[in-house]
Amino acid sequence: MKVCPLTHENAGVIREIFGYTSPSVLGTKSAFGTGDRIGGAASATPGHIRAAKNYDVAVFLAQQSVRENARTGRTFRQVLDDATWGVFQEGYKRQWGADADHLMDLVSMGQAVDAGFTMFTVDPSHCINYKAFSNQSHPDGLLCV
């Protein structure tokens, strides 16, 4: 047995050797997102796996938003690596997903793609013209929805 540090490089090797430690595209399977908000040595991923493994549902073990990453000082790469280590620790062989949440720009999306995320939740709220929802938008007083 070889003991190695939990680095990004080693997580990449683990994902290459043990395919189940890489996230999958889950499509339309019943799923829910757990998203380990802390990661690192205090990773919640093993607990999330133990809670979900007896149910017929897929899990998004890596699920984080740009805002959450900024507040916790993490990157999409770190989020995915932490999930990989939790999957490896638990020997979890079922498919799991990685959701990059609330993406508002192409830079963040590129970072999530480069990290290996498999689902991308786009948040276009900054593009909405909220004046379109007022009664003044239409002569008939209809809302533009």
Automatic annotation (TrEMBL):
Pfam families: UxaE. InterPro entries: UxaE. GO terms for molecular function: isomerase activity. This is Uncharacterized protein. It comes from marine sediment metagenome.
